[in-house]
Amino acid sequence: MTATGSRDDDFTAFVLARSARLVHFARVLCGDAGLAEDLVQTALEKAYLRWDRIEMADPFAYVRQAVVNQHLSWVRRRPWRERPSGDTAELELLLEADADPSGGVHRRVAVGAALATLSRRERAVVVLRYLEDLTERETAAVLGVAIGTVKSANARALDKLRAAPELSGVGERA
Amino acid sequence: MNDEQLRAALAPDDTIAPLDPARVIAGARRRRVRGRVAAAAASAAVAGVVAVTVVAGLPRADVPQPAGPGPAVPVQPSIRTPVRTPSVRPTPPPSATPTFPARRTVRPTSVPTSSTPPGPRGDRTTPLRQATPSTPPTRTPD
Q1: Which residues of A are less than 8 Å from B8 in CB distance?
Q2: Which ipTM value was assigned to this complex?
């Protein structure tokens, strides 16, 4: 097997194993299913071009970092790009919620709506801290900011999330 | 909702399908080609600008160079803009009584005659015969 073939096989295995998780991460990060797929696709394309260098390290962390960077830069360019009129994924979740006895879907919808009120940096901090379970130091490294900035953004984000009735206890230990 | 419930609400579900790796690889190859084309175009543009700059900076052989500065041409005022009447410079009083008191000319201490030999070259101690304005200037302000 050639080096390129082996490289492609490794990359294909990575995409099949981790891209769904990356798409979910991007979806929570940006709140848009279509944009999330675009973000991950672009990040994976860039990762493929440097696969020899990043394969030995942590490819998932590399692609996740690329998704975050891409998201922050795309948000800055957003006014000149197309604007989505609505997210159908949220509507589908609302329809599912009627058949959900545990209330898990309701919670997802409530969390999604509450996350939409956050700024992009606050949202990124919440997603990295609570979805990816990163420490404050790791979150600061991913975002390229100081730890104090992460702490203050996290505190502001939790204050905003607590304003939603379904999320009044966020920030308290279970 | 506490932290754990927030984590549970954010946790991934199994409804998201993975991306197509072949599509990702094809997109990456297109991206690489686009990057190379853009880099080549940028290099060509830079080389073109440098070449034009170098060519424009070289002296051209078919264009005659100026021989040097031309004769100085006295600048004449093109418009009449006198603001005041030029004052007449007082002439130095002669040390001796002038022969012709009516003419206000500079006279040397000894009355020169036409046979007086000129002084040495560069000697300016002996005043030369020089016409002085005997009448006030005729140009007056408007």
Answers
A1: 104, 107
A2: 0.72
